[in-house]
Amino acid sequence: MNSKSRIIAFIVAVAVLFGAMGYTVKGVLEDVKLGLDLQGGFEVLYEVQPLKDGQKITHDIVADTTTALSKRIDAFGVSEPSIQVEGENRIRVQLAGIDDQSSAREMLSSTANLTFRDVNDNLLLDGSDLKEGGAAASFDNQNRPIVTLTLKDAQKFAEITSKISKMPQGENLLVIWMDFEEGKDSFKKEAAKPDPKYISAASVNQTLNTTDVMISGNFTVEETKNLASILNAGALPVKLTEIYATSVGAQFGEQALQSTVFASIVGVALIFIFMLLYYRLPGFISIITLTVFSYLVLLIQNWIGAVLTLPGIAALVLGIGMAVDANILTAERIREELRVGKSAEEAFKIGSKVSLSAIIDAQLTTLLAAVVLFFFGTSSVKGFATTLMISIILSFLTSVWLSRVLLGLLVKSGKFENPFFYGVRKSKIHNPSEGVETLDLSTNFDRFDFVHNRKKFYAISLVIIILGAIMIGIFRLNLGIDFSSGTRVEILTNEPTTQEKMADYLDKIGFAPDELVISGENSDTAVATYKKDFTQQETLDLKKAIMDDYGHEPNVSTVSPTVGRELVKNAIKALAIAAIGIIIYVAVRFEWRMGVGAIASLLHDVFFMVAIFSVFRIEVDITFIAAILTIVGYSINDTIVTFDRIRENVDHKGEIKTKEALADIVNKSLRQTMGRSVNTVLTVIVVVVALLIFGAPAIRNFSIALLIGLVTGMYSSICIAAQIWYTLKSREMDKKGTTLKKKEKKQWGSDEPVV
Are 46 and 111 in contact (CB under 8 A)? Predict the structure, then answer.
């Protein structure tokens, strides 16, 4: 292709991309399903009652019930439910994006105890005979919806069917019931008026020695899916009695959501301006690919039926950060090659190649963490992981592949040879005859000596950790109602109300809430939460005041932190497994010492943020978990990029004979990546600050956590992770009395063997 053809191809490609997005973006935005915290949804309150006589409702039974409910909710899609245990025997479930509330009620409360009986109601098989996960929605030979089951014992089924097949015609029926309760009339008596729980009755004429069973009936496709999901989720250990069900208002509210979206747009626009002014042509390409990236994330979310919640937004912010980082990594490497005297086309080719290794390593380690969080996390953690996995894959597709295709068309056209187009001043360019290499290039951070100040960094971090531990011991965390016991008050008004009006009223009567949500189809229900348990007198006073003013007695209940603590427990477990996986990956890809440094850096960032929240009494709620997970992602990404540059420069040096030479390599590597680290963090901080200034109050704590974590993440990757690796590596040199030499092993994106 000649230069003109390449430019035309670029214009056509961009026009097609933006034309396709412009034509479909309205539909994509309209199809985005917002989570309960963004749009409100369906709420139901259950009272847990014994399933059989003599059964005692204990804390463990209630916890098991919430687990079973959580499994059933998964059948609805990625909806990130809110499940709270209230008092000793009540469970509140909130679901977003559910249109058919009656189906949701039935699926949640049904005990799903499938039973096989004869016509005299003698129990033959029940749910315990069903193989775990053995139910599935399918179709029969006539393409009618059915449910297939896999039983545990073929011999037992053979004995039952053999016995039934010998019964008189009309009585040789295997009757299938759902939640068959003792005391109901028999199948024969109910034949004229079937019970709603009746499923089907099959004639048995021969012995069936099999574990495969097919249930047919007048099912719809959706009914077979629901039945299979309920059966696979298992029977509830109790009976759930519905106290009430209603729609619930959004935590943000429409106006707050709009302000948060506006803040995000402002932040992303500022990122675009920075990329364009600082990196110029590569920055212009990044604007195109980041726009495509954001569009594709929402499109894929819609395709898989995912629900966008606050943790999902956190994962999207992290995904945008990683997409920006991939563009910055490539742009910085191109600038380095231009500075050593390469042509624009050579610089593009080499810069794209050498940056690929760091991008792959950083995104693979973050993807590994996301996969672990998805499989071992629950609720909002699983939703965060889902969006993050989508974002990582799409950022590689757009910010690596698409960026290089588009930038390559312009660079190879020969019309953009001037270093100005890449943000490089001519005074910074060396003549190729000088033989200057990228490792020898000056940076804006050459005055910093990181390695020889490592003990100061260790001391600073150690002091912070000790002080943080003391502060946490004294002040404790300011736990929100999700993690601590509290009181929930539901007030039914006679007419539509607003959040401001109800907040003023409750403050006036002396019960200012910590959190207030307006719900109900007519905005006539106020739900106030308090981070304390009301005394009996406080409860009586509140009820009297509300009864006098509204004529309805409010529902006052104690909220248990069971579900919130379970979420934290699963998140910690998932992070621990992810940390082990990262160490193994880094040990194989680089070496185990770098893995130790990466995890130490990660733990440093998490603890630092927890300590800050404790000292400044910032409330810790469910959104805090999303912020922690986001910071973990950034910390891993930043640290791996730093290690990749150290690995590359050690390889370039060939053989390192002294610790001073090793220190010089580490210092130069950190200086070279500082520009990229600062620019990446600054671009994301712009979004976070925009959220703080323009976003909704409900997202403020989340934004503060992100801001703290971003700064500490950059600090720890440079001043902690890299220094730990140097310390461990220098000790190895002292112990063995040897120099660092090349290992004859090829690495991704490199044609040279590396240490």
Answer: no
Q: Measured between alpha carbons, how far is 542 from 509 in angstroms, rounded to an integer?
A: 8
Question: Strand order in 525-530's β-sheet?
Answer: 239-248, 41-49, 90-95, 82-86, 555-560, 486-492, 525-530, 515-519
CA distance linking residue 366 with residue 716, whole number of Å? 17
What 371-378 contacts at long range (C-beta under 8 Å, 24+ apart), as own/partner pairs, is: 372/574, 372/577, 372/578, 372/581, 373/571, 373/574, 373/575, 373/578, 373/629, 375/574, 376/570, 376/573, 376/574, 376/577, 377/570, 377/571, 377/574, 378/70, 378/566, 378/567, 378/570
Sign of CA dihedral 325, 398, 35, 367: negative
**Per-residue model confidence as pLDDT tens digits over 587-622:** 788 888 888 888 888 888 888 888 888 877 777 776
- Condensed to tens digits (0 to 9), the pLDDT of residues 87-121 reads 778 888 877 766 566 666 666 766 556 677 888 87
Determine the number of helices (DSSP H) and then strands (DSSP E) in the chain: 22, 17
Burial of 16 (0-12, 13-18, 19+ CB in 10 A): exposed
Q: 10 Å Cβ neighbour count for 140? A: 11
- 326 within 8 A of 395, measured Cβ to Cβ: yes
Least confident piece of the model among 120-134, 140-154, 220-234, 275-289: 220-234
pTM over 0.90, yes/no: no
> Rounded to 5 degrees, what angle do the CA atoms 613, 617, 623 make?
55
- Residue 458 pLDDT: 92
Q: How far apart are CA 180 and CA 198, in angstroms?
A: 8
